[in-house]
Amino acid sequence: MSVPEQLRYSEEHEWVAGLDNEDGIVTVGITQHAADALGEIVFLELQQGEGDTVESGETCGEVESTKSVSDLYSPVSGEITAVNAAVVDEPKVINDDPYGEGWIFKVKISEEPGDLLDAEAYGKLIEES
Amino acid sequence: MSADPTPKKTPLYDVHAALGANLVDFAGYLMPLRYASETAEHRAVRTGSGLFDLSHMGEIFLTGPQAAAALDFALVGNISPMAVGKARYTMIVQEDGGVLDDLIVYRLAAETYLVVANASNVAVVRDALVERAKGFEAEVDDRSDAYALIALQGPDAQDILLRYTDAPLPELKYYAILPGEVAGVDALIARTGYTGEDGFELFVAADDAVGLWNTLAGVEGVVPSGLSARDTLRLEAGMPLYGNELTTDTTPFDAGLGRVVKFEKESDFVGRTALAARAEAAAGRRLVGLVARGRRAPRKGYAVVGPDGTPCGVVTSGAPSPTLGTPIAMAYLDASVPEDTTELAVDVRGRHEPVDVVALPFYKRS
Fold this sequence. Notes:
The complex is a heterodimer. Chain A is an alpha+beta fold. Chain A has one domain (8-124): CATH 2.40.50.100. Chain A has four helices and nine strands; from the N terminus they run βββαβββββααβα. Chain B is an alpha+beta fold. Helices cover 19% and strands 33% of the residues of chain B. Chain B contains eight helices and 20 strands. Chain B has helices at 13-18, 38-47, 67-74, 122-132, 157-162, 209-217, 227-236, 272-280, and strands at residues 8-9, 22-26, 29-34, 49-53, 58-63, 87-93, 99-109, 112-117, 139-142, 147-153, 177-182, 185-190, 199-205, 222-224, 286-292, 303-305, 311-320, 327-333, 343-348, 351-358. Chain B has a six-stranded mixed beta sheet, sandwiched between helices. The radius of gyration of chain B is 21 Å and the shape is globular. Chain A binds chain B through residues 36, 39-40, 42-43, 45, 62, 64, 66-69, 92, 95, and chain B through 22, 33-34, 37-39, 228, 231-232, 295-297, 299, 319-320, 322, 349.
């Protein structure tokens, strides 16, 4: 199971990239573990769009597969600067490339994120689940 | 409902694991949910062929001079007129008419019947058959562990199977069975399935399962398919699933399957009195199809709501339909919902999503 070293993770199985970026804009997606558990993703709904704010730990959408549905939580607080229209159109991209083409949205973070996990801790979390 | 916390493995478990299947505990068995993409598996069955391991299903044999009479008494169907080599879809109900399981009964020989039960209900069905066969010259033998069941389903199934058998498949009708050799293995070849497509179910000795599976899975275009695809296939075909559309709180009439109850048979049968009363009574709740207008899928247990937002039914199965491209569901509507209702909504996690009410099935092969 792929858990890239350079990313940070929420306990709700979202990943965050670019926390060290100088512009404060990070990229958010869901992990391969989550995508595999859901099965083929057929529908992604985001409650917020570009310019809206999200709160860390709050529901911001849902991810639906053939077999199940699961809430999407924002792992950070801030303003959405971009939404990946390609995955909204074709959510299966998340299954195929969860850490690349399957990114979901970008956020200009308004506060330093608190309790994100590093790759080792997240790897342990999914091993135990 | 198994009390045993360790799920059992079918004879094909190692094959599934080697294929990288996502294996889940289903009815006490570790079964493949999907191998790769369940949507691709679903489409393969609709357009080509898919291969399924159904070895978790139960194979219960009834033999003896009064085997047919015992089944006439034990089940709602009319079994004794069945010719050798024929199959029937039927049900076993409680005294109060509640469904214990839906079954396929095959007549293998003059005094030999095979009853195929859902994995979760094998013990219940076996025990009920043993109890109900008392006083008849018939023996009940649960041989579920001795048999593996492999299904090849889809429009290409016959052409593919003919490469490995001399059995006269083109003459084998839907809901019929014949013994034959497939890829050098003794099999009972049934033209039955749970996908809405043409296809075959092959009952073989547990030891022969891996060889037969590998032969068929090695054919170009044959896609190993898991329970997830099987569920969306049967949902599109409007076929009930025990535990969803059928339960002990459901009669065959509720599920729109009153036709399987054969009151015309002479013998008494368990549930006759209760079902006769139900058949005479005013229409109760009814099973319908729902097609969502949006993209959020109704799921099992969600409330169906009327125009004023009050609950008027419950979803029993629902998923995005790969064939229709929209979410579909089956649901029970309360008797109070007018027959000509064409639009309702489903409470999908707090939001009322509009749905069209349609007749089942959603998909019928051409």
